[in-house]
From TrEMBL:
The keyword Magnesium does not apply. Gene3D superfamilies: Mog1/PsbP, alpha/beta/alpha sandwich. Keywords: Autocatalytic cleavage, Cell membrane, Disulfide bond, Glycoprotein, GPI-anchor, Lipoprotein, Membrane, Signal. Residues 156-396 form the Repulsive guidance molecule C-terminal domain. GO terms for cellular component: plasma membrane; side of membrane. GO terms for molecular function: coreceptor activity. This is RGM domain family member B. Residues 117-129 have a biased composition (Polar residues).
Amino acid sequence: MGEAAAAPAVAIAVAEPRRRPRPPARAALLLLLGLGLLLRTGDCQLQTPCRIQKCTTDFVSLTSHLNPAIDGFDLEFCKALRAYAACTYRNSKVCRGNLVYHSAVLGISDLMSQRNCSKDGPTSSTNPEVTHDPCNYSSRTGAREHRGGEQTPPVYLFCGLFGDPHLRTFKDHFQTCKVEGAWPLIDNNYLSVQVTNVPVVPGSSATATNKITIIFKSYQDCTDQKVYQAVTDDLPAAFVDGTTSGGDGDTKSLRIVEKVSGKYVEMHARYIGTTVFVRQHGRYLTLAIRMPEELAMAYEESQDLQLCVNGCPSSERIDDSGHLPLPVMGQLPPHAGSTQPRSVYTLESATTKCHEKMLVKDIYFYSCVFDLLTTGDANFTAAAHSALQDVEVLHPRKERWHIFPNNGTGGFVKGSKLSVSLGLVCLILVAFL
């Protein structure tokens, strides 16, 4: 159980961060597991005052809540690594003959190289009074958990809106709605998001988003209220007051990052642990947001009309209880024929077009097909594809990334090709009622 056992354990721990997008917190946990097991082997190791296990435990507590999708991840992870390195250095004499210690030193060096961390710079501290930063949500929650003796990371929620429009709520419910005009997606004590939807084609109740207004509410000394507004063909990289950030100091608590000029911006609000993506595809906008559950649910009773929280009102739904309904064969809704616009796509060609970008036939794939058949606009293919990409970056639970059409039994399952095809036709017909 000596060197032969140590080498594989450390190799696994060091290699884990390369498997993106797997969070480095898991790599740290594997590192702790490997070192912890090795620490229990060999009587001489148990009898030494070497505190390498404490160093590793502190590193895990500092990084377990970090996520690569959140702004400032590299800064915080490097600070934790430097603290880990400093801890091993303080124990260098007493741990001189400890195999686990030397394996940890090599692992730290490799991680710092992978993350481009400098050896000199600020370090994290396990002292909650030192690490507490009121303008950093992760720091606040980490300090609070440390004082309470619990190490449970905060729970994050995801909401997205794209296409005709298709809504994914904080509860992972997927809906297709009409919601013409201005509607609140989010309205809590920290953030307000409102979208404006307009009809896509004449004679259809299907709409798409052409305006997004986001209000980051003032919070302590972290930021004043900031308003962001995007409309079709005007996706600015600044707030309405012309600034690109909020808060004082070198590390801004709120900032805008332009990824693609006029097409894609990100907003990172460190003080509330929130990330927002806004994109434009063709003439319409899409939105994706990740927010801590405790903040997303902090609202008054009068603020209950929030699409991300409670979904669309039943009168605004185009889909049927979250699954694709089957129409009565040979029967068309009344007045559908004269007003229905003609799409350049057939069911077969729309399916082929969407399959070019989305290989998994989940609800995003079928939403893409529905949008192509409804509008004939190929830009909706890119919108559905980027919406799924945003899920993969911001949604905290990988097993919930893909949602499959509901067959009416209460669970998400893959429907048959015939059922889904008929369901899509029905959805389109319902949209024109």
